[in-house]
């Protein structure tokens, strides 16, 4: 064979080998890509948030590591690739998602977060459009409960505010109450207490409960809580509150000084997120008001998430605490609802993916994966987690009350199990309030009417005319006093329908991205 022909043959054989190897390499790369789960985590960088990246990242990585080490959490060869982006608490979350897709030309397989309602809404809509599962321990407002359309790919791994409303409904049924005053602080950008009370309001409204709704800005230097408490006296006798722990304490002190802690009123405090930052039910501060606060808190009960403890949770808590402390964060609450929730979100996704793969689908079939996250019960880091058919986690809650007024001891006096809709009150619980007094709904009307007998007269005498003139002057004086009161203190003490314009105006810059709020728009 001529040398030139031999050389040509060698070149052809080499080219064919190269092409074959390239094809094999491409197939291997494609198979590797198929088993790589790209996760985009959208949480705030700012550690002022309870769900900041610094707090939640150790929990997510703990879950990923646990699945890898167990060998049973993910199918063979599958692995997570985590990307963390600062969501802030607004549109930056959406921009981060769009940038990732535009620059890398690759969509994530899973979204974790955001938490803030105004950040989560546009991301959830885009996730539905792109068929990407979105798991979050936030987006708890009532508006996200409508999963039929734009929020179809959102699964909430922490109890939504409406679930807390269901718990309070069960509590009210237990006590045979049907009227309530909702009092909350509406001062921070994420509006946690506003949306929490919206969840309660939605549930109570479905039961045709009568409600008075009051809000205030606890960051205002003009705030006078004595005036807020006086306003409560014109409402219902069962008061549900949401504010910071110190503000709740000051409200209870003001209520005590105004004689409202004598059994005629029942006060409930919502402790959000299993964190002392919101609604800490402790009366003790080590100041001169401790004794008075202890007496006032005997008429206050705190609603919080049910706490369960198991050996693995203790290990998890210590590891998270160590990781967070290395970042320079030192606080009382290293593990809260968000930290637990995002850990459990990783486990839930792994379970759903396994089910989808069994039926011959892939990680790209987002809608199929979302369906597998629903109607599912599994073991989370702190106990059993149950997701309902709507993609919302059932909520288990506890009620904490003062069991020893002399010592000021506070203990769990009742538990609510959301999946079963069952409320269990501990035995030998003594309530400080007057049940009969709280159930007489019409009593407030009778107290303010018919206090003096009416005398009939054939005409208006001099005394009657004088009375009318004096009454008119007093009425004008009261109107002027009320005007200056409103101007000075700027306290929002309005019915729900009167708050619509204020709430819409306050967040008009977010109108295109806001959630559908039943509370302000109903």
Verbal overview:
The protein is an alpha/beta fold. About 45% of the residues lie in helices and about 15% in strands. The chain contains 17 helices and 15 strands. It has helices at about 5-35, 55-70, 90-105, 115-130, 160-175, 190-205, 225-230, 245-255, 290-295, 310-325, 335-360, 365-375, 435-440, 445, 460-490, 500-505, 520, and strands spanning about 35-45, 80-85, 110, 135, 155, 180-185, 210-215, 240, 265-270, 300-305, 375-380, 385, 395-405, 410-415, 420-425. It has an eight-stranded mixed sheet, covered by helices on one side. α2 (about 55-70) runs parallel beside α11 (about 335-360) and α8 packs across α9 (about 290-295). The longest helix has about 30 residues, at about 5-35. The chain is elongated and about 115 Å long. It starts with a helix and ends with a helix.
Provide the descriptors you would attach to this structure in a database record.
eight-stranded mixed β-sheet; five-stranded parallel β-sheet; 522 residues; elongated; 17 helices; alpha/beta
